[in-house]
Amino acid sequence: ARDGGAPRAWGSRAVSRADAGRYICRATNKHGSATRSVVVTVEYEPSIGETGCPARRLWVEGTPAELACAASGNPSPRVACAKLGDGQDAPPASPNVTRAHAGTYQCRATNTHGSALRNVTVAVEYSPAAVSLRVLPSANVSRGASFSVECRAEGLPPPTYSWALPPAPNLRFAADNHSVAVAGAAAANRGLYTCTATNRHGQRAGSVMVRVDGEMGCTGKTGGGGLFVTAAASPAPSRPAESRLALLASLGSLGAVTAVGLAVAVGYYLKSTACKKGEYNVRDAEGSSDAACLHRQRHDRGEVYGIQLTQP
């Protein structure tokens, strides 16, 4: 009888795992009885189930790498896992997880009665990496033209995107925020465009500088991080101007007073006609070999910065 169970007669039948346990055997005749305890062990081939060996695993880059897979069997099976296509054992617990660990592993459980196989798919999550920005069609934009800035980054889960850029009313962001489009570029669109990619494991940023050519900003106002100020370029006198100066010299005999008056008149004429006025970027002018000086004047409107340029 099974230990604790009712006595029964046993015949020949197929053994199952449920037959394992302790049995009490009792022999009886008219003179008495004898008993003996017997422990029955049932051996069987290995099997690997979902509970002890999930078919899908999620690892995080930088954490210890370990692929444990439990199997049932008697005797206790030995379990080994190898990445398909590599022919190598799964990484032990000591090395850290890298993106190269992602893939499908095959786990094999073996004992004296046979073996069992199970495939395990490993995904590796990691913080955003390789953030890249691209300006289309070019980072040097003509005023009034349209352009877009695209941001891409690797990461698992897929990252979300946020932007830090020159504020302007002509910005349009894509549905997933990975790009920003600018229609009719102006001075306000000039500057540094920074994209930040973020997921639950971290974040990373990248930047690109956009330049808008042909900018004509207002005096003393900023555009895209740069200060645009009024500048004056004083080229050498043209040939007509030189002729007028020669004429002035030849009239010296008319008297000093008359000559001085004519000199003042000619100087005012040259200043009003030969001086090239326009809008220049202070940063560009300061780094130019044509820049001679940078000065500041006070007017009713406030402070006006001027750049005196020399003719090459």
Automatic annotation (TrEMBL):
UniProt keywords, alphabetically: Membrane, Transmembrane, Transmembrane helix
InterPro entries: ICAM_VCAM, Ig-like_dom, Ig-like_dom_sf, Ig-like_fold, Ig_sub, Ig_sub2
Keyword Transmembrane helix: yes
Ig-like domain residues: 46-123, 128-213
GO CC annotations on file: plasma membrane
BP term (GO), one: cell adhesion
Protein's name in the database: ICAM5 protein
Species name: Oceanites oceanicus (Wilson's storm petrel)
